[in-house]
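Can't paste images in this forum, so I'm doing it all in text. The chain is below; anyone willing to post the predicted structure tokens underneath?
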Amino acid sequence: QVQLVESGGGLAQAGGSLRLSCVASVRTFSDYTMAWFRQAPGKEREFVAAFRWDGRLRKYADAVKGRFTIDRDNAKNTVYLQMDELKPEDTAIYYCAMDSIRERTLSSSDKAQYANWGQGTQVTVSS
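Text version of the structure:
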């Protein structure tokens, strides 16, 4: 089974930074688009950022554009989410996700595209 393990969550002050990591236990990591989603209490899981498998496109939700940066290191089977200028509304559980299809040329913010999910890491931002 594919396993995705997130880390790096924790407490931060408003305006501060955190860096999330997700390590995938797959040998074909570079063949898949990777993404980050988040879910706050009482809300649906929402798209945050995606990094297309071929590196040609990075996509961000409007709420985080200019503050968050997604990156990946294929040699380490790892995708990162650098979060700067954090706001209290960024508080949520953050999930790493892997595309369900290898070498897909289309990318999407639709969570239905992603079949493999990590267990999440909590991010809490105080005022």
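Residues 49 and 108 are 10 Å apart (CA to CA). The mean pLDDT is 95.
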